[in-house]
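Hi C.,

You asked whether I'd gotten around to modeling the 170-residue construct. I have! Everything is below, sequence then structure, no commentary in between.
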Amino acid sequence: MKGQNFGLLYFLMVLAQIILCNFTNLGPYVMLSLLPAMVICVPLTVSTPLCMLLAFATGLSVDWLSEGLVGINAASLVPVALMRKPLIRFFLGEDLITRSDSFSFRKNGVGKITMLLFLATLIFLGIYITLDGAGTRPMWFNLTRLGVSLACNCILALIVTNILTVDDRK
């Protein structure tokens, strides 16, 4: 059922991200985002250029409907979409890419998927925090924000991945 409704679940996650951006302010050190995990969970049958367009549209819609700086989520999410297949290939194996198979916690293990999500979130947050600071904040602040946000977002990414991935091994 999850595989058939991926588009609907993705749209609902975008709405959840917009609500999260608009109504949660956990301070200057924490930035919560579901977006990197959502892009990683896009089915592998979707080509990289199409995934990059989806990531750009998703990021731009979140920027436009929630945050004041238009383009920052889009600019941070497109590199995650570009690196999606190489990251999956590195952490989950080449055969997953060649078969355009889906991944899940049961098939691939929590450890591998956690490392995949950690690196995708690190790419997203590294670009986001660099663009957000734009040379106006000290390096210690940006690194602290990166560390705290990375810890919080990895937990969110595991939850989002569990919702969006199909477990067809029963």
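If it helps when you're writing up: The chain has a mean pLDDT of 87.

Thanks,
B.
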